[in-house]
Amino acid sequence: MAVSHLPFLLIRPRLTAPSRLHIFIPPLSSDQYSHKCYRPLSTESSPSPHDRDSGPLPGFNAAAHKDLNSPSNVSPASSDSGQSIPLSESGTHWYDNPDFTISTFSELPSKNFGVNQHMIINEEFKEALRQILWQFKAPIRYAFAYGSGVFPQSNRSTTPAKSSHPAAPQAIQTGQGNSGKMIDFIFGVSYSQHWHALNLNQHRDHYSGLGSLGSYVVSQIQEKWGAGVYFNPYVTVNGTLIKYGVVNIDTLCKDLSDWDSLYLAGRLQKPVKILRDHPKVRLANQVNLLSAVRVALLLLPPKFTEQQLYSTIAGISYLGDPRMSFASEDPRKVNNIVTSQMTNFRRLYAPLIETLPNVAFNDPQCARLDWVDNPEVDAWLAQDMDPFKRGNMVRRLPQSFREKLYFQFQSRYQIPRVEFEKMMEKSNDEDPERVHRRVGGVFEQRIAADEHLKDEATKSIRKTISWPSTNQSIKSLFTAGLGRGWRYMKEKQQKYASAKQETEEATTSHSKKE
What we know:
Blueprint: H1 123-133, E1 142-146, H2 170-175, E2 183-189, H3 192-202, H4 215-224, E3 229-237, E4 240-248, H5 249-258, H6 263-267, E5 273-276, H7 279-299, E6 303-305, H8 306-316, H9 322-325, H10 333-340, H11 342-354, E7 359-361, E8 380-383, H12 387-395, H13 399-413, H14 417-426, H15 442-449, H16 453-480, H17 482-513
């Protein structure tokens, strides 16, 4: 039975070989959730006092196992994905030819497809966040809340919150632990100019002086400059201080599927709270998450921990980010995010790891039934370094990112331009009308086995992120207005300085003890 049809798994590994996760369906309805049970995820979780950020993992159980080195798992027809991913009538997997023209959830590859993207948080907190969306008359097709205002990024705050809410509902105050942090949102819209026209009419005070130029200028600045997002920070809605970014649905899906800028794709590679879902975005984001796993596997050694895997994934979007270079971001941010959200990362990625035959959990801790909900567990995983399978992973990387990686290796291998272009044209299989499976060739296998892959992949990520992210940061100074933009940068710098000071103090204290 296909894994994406099923909402939950448990793991009981065989320690003699990396364990595979196999599924069973417990007789449990969505309203029968408790701390010791596994609750099926849905896009609309039932109200429950047990809802929490460390909620149950959507998809995990195992009674039988596969050996990564078993001959049955290696064949010329095999891909880097296992048979647990649903196949179409033509024999291809959903990710080989994702249909981004879909408009209903029934058109997704399976009933519970993408439920791993939905994090469970306190029900009252979630409803308070949704109430903020209802204060906008302009239609929001897709929305998620993200960042430390929703998911704590450390066990304790390094500095008192500077952006306190004027009169936030009690549910938000409780959900944030009274930290009073500004809450970040992304709104996906169908028609940017129309949306801004409606929003300018209702919320002119949300915009800087650019708003006086009208919705056409605002939408052009949004779509033609930076990463395609228009941010309005430090605005109060329902007594809550928020920042919201507006992006066209098509722009969002393009970044998720192709990694054009990784600006929004990177945000969705970390746990977020989806408040309003859209079938096309859910499909594109599942492609994005699977791509993140593939890139991480190409960068990691044969054996690694969950912490290493999730840190590699979370760190992708910060490579090339100018904020990390100009002392405007906490240098421990990636570690803080992963450490404080281990179970959410597990919820997001473990079901996808199950679909890949060349990687598996391989840790005795996984024998405990409650390990999936235990943030203290940092399980070991193992991957098969077979060049054929890794070559397939290279071939299935997002198109824009993959092209940059290819050019990096063209330069390294000194392949003549004409020969390289012929090779690329021959391997071009991006035609959406053609049903096919992308299989890596000799060039991809050579890349996968190259000792410089990590360096070249890192350079490709930096090239993907650096220019759009820099432009977006500059644009934000104008879209926010100089006052609010300066306030945002000062708070980031203060957070960076505080984190740096704490790191130095911890290092000094450790040295004295030694």
